[in-house]
Amino acid sequence: MAETKELVLLNCWASPYGMRCRIALAEKRVEYEHKDENLMEKSPLLLQSNPVHKKIPVLVHGGKPVCESLVIVQYVDEAWPDRAPLLPADAYGRAQARFWADFVDKKIFECGTKLWMLKKEAQGAAKKEFTEGLKLLEGELGEKKYFGGDTFGFVDVALVPLMAWFRTFESFGSFIAETEAPKLVAWGKRCMERESVAMSLPDPGKVYEFVCFMRKMLGLG
Amino acid sequence: MAPPSDDLKLLGSWASSYTHRVQLALKLKGLAFEYAEEDLADKSPSLLLHNPVYKKVPVLLHRGRPVLESVIILHYLDETWPDVPLVPADPYDRALARFWCHFVDDKLGPAVGAVFASPSEGQAAAVEQVHENLRLVERELREGAFAGRRFFGGDKIGVLDIVLGCGSYWLAVFEDVMEVKLVDPEAFPLFHSWLRDFEEQEEVKAIIPAIDRLLEYARGVRQMMLGLSPQQQ
């Protein structure tokens, strides 16, 4: 049975990808050990578990590593199928959920990283892509409570770490979330009412401080 | 005998390895479908309607509803027609297959593409990047998760074989067009023998376009790229 094997999550507190895994594990009410990695000095366990990318998050289950946050979330969903299903039951619904989760990866988080990592001059294209991404997601959400409909699902898990990062993206991307994506802000607030989300997302102010510190270290001023 | 696949249509492009992935999966599963070739320089209204976000092929239409992104389509086919399974049954094996599919699409594929797009000064670095990525795959075949297997899927072709295999023929094409060695059988013996085995499968031979057509196509694209390159002006 899945529960009897040891479960460890290698993570970094500010990582939106790690937050996804924490939320999924919390939704499934699964016990695990949480190990915060120092990314300047990666542990032997991390290097051994993810030799290809040497990145967090990594979920180690019974000694076997699972890497990449969306792969981990699907794994958690499939390893504990008897509770809180994150993906819909029908194949078409699953295909749509996977599509939008992948979209979130590319257009929100990858793109969002460019907003704070690039110098101001280079940001223009990234900002346009990011805000357009927000609008497409709002279209997909529509009037639903969650992206999963009435059920908190895969796309919700994939996107909700944005709530911890919105302040950072707003600041470096020079936009206001409430203006650009009011529906997503409202959706985010609904998600924060869930225990799994509230306990897994750090304070946005702390994330912002962390990014400012990272930018200094990278010489971005 | 193909089971009824009620209203399956694929929008694709003959030289797109992403399209080939879906065609191969459909063939392996014995599913009948209608194929529509897209002119990527003049995209059809149907493509723009069904994939407004990316406007790319392949697009699978099942009973008129679009399924997008090749790996997602492969999962959809497997979940809708479970005979001749492509995705592993065990959650951990599924996670591994998905991880390596991402690797192909995020790392190996772009690295191979970079060799093709590189001006001559950048070529050595681009080739080394491909080798670095192939070494990771070779290691996995030699002593990692896939050690001892004929295919990544086991005895039969699975989703990772399809994803890695459809596109690997470009390696031979680029070796010819760019006059560079990408897959040395001595440096990558397991990858090399897996690829030969994959390419020998009847279903694969039926899907992959003739090498001459691919060579001609690649040469044409390369000429166009060099013609547009700033160094040429």
From TrEMBL, chain B:
<dbReference type="InterPro" id="IPR040079">
    <property type="entry name" value="Glutathione_S-Trfase"/>
</dbReference>
<dbReference type="InterPro" id="IPR010987">
    <property type="entry name" value="Glutathione-S-Trfase_C-like"/>
</dbReference>
<comment type="similarity">
    <text>Belongs to the GST superfamily. Tau family.</text>
</comment>
<dbReference type="InterPro" id="IPR004045">
    <property type="entry name" value="Glutathione_S-Trfase_N"/>
</dbReference>
<dbReference type="GO" id="GO:0009407">
    <property type="term" value="P:toxin catabolic process"/>
</dbReference>
<dbReference type="Pfam" id="PF13410">
    <property type="entry name" value="GST_C_2"/>
</dbReference>
<protein>
    <recommendedName>
        <fullName>Glutathione S-transferase</fullName>
        <ecNumber>2.5.1.18</ecNumber>
    </recommendedName>
</protein>
<dbReference type="InterPro" id="IPR045074">
    <property type="entry name" value="GST_C_Tau"/>
</dbReference>
<dbReference type="GO" id="GO:0005829">
    <property type="term" value="C:cytosol"/>
</dbReference>
<keyword id="KW-0963">Cytoplasm</keyword>
<feature type="domain" description="GST C-terminal">
    <location>
        <begin position="90"/>
        <end position="221"/>
    </location>
</feature>
<keyword id="KW-0808">Transferase</keyword>
<dbReference type="GO" id="GO:0006749">
    <property type="term" value="P:glutathione metabolic process"/>
</dbReference>
<comment type="function">
    <text>Is involved in the conjugation of reduced glutathione to a wide number of exogenous and endogenous hydrophobic electrophiles.</text>
</comment>
<dbReference type="Pfam" id="PF02798">
    <property type="entry name" value="GST_N"/>
</dbReference>
<dbReference type="GO" id="GO:0004364">
    <property type="term" value="F:glutathione transferase activity"/>
</dbReference>
<dbReference type="InterPro" id="IPR045073">
    <property type="entry name" value="Omega/Tau-like"/>
</dbReference>
<dbReference type="InterPro" id="IPR036282">
    <property type="entry name" value="Glutathione-S-Trfase_C_sf"/>
</dbReference>
<dbReference type="InterPro" id="IPR036249">
    <property type="entry name" value="Thioredoxin-like_sf"/>
</dbReference>
<feature type="domain" description="GST N-terminal">
    <location>
        <begin position="6"/>
        <end position="85"/>
    </location>
</feature>
